[in-house]
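Morning F.,

Quick status update on the modeling queue. The single chain you submitted on Monday has been processed. Sequence for confirmation:
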Amino acid sequence: GTHSDIHARKEQREAQRRQADLLDSVLANIPIGVSIATAAGELEYVNDFMVRTLGWSAEELRRPETWAEVY
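Structure tokens below.
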């Protein structure tokens, strides 16, 4: 009934949270630069390795004018 539906949804949300936490951990610790961009080319995510490697802050890397300097 309703109790089992609520319990199943809670378990599903918890499993999704664990998967998101795992992905966040992998992306944060992988020894390669990773960025995630929208279809329009706007960066939504830049990992710490990419920040350290390129020498710009994550905020700077999200600005199109930063990439204009690179290319």
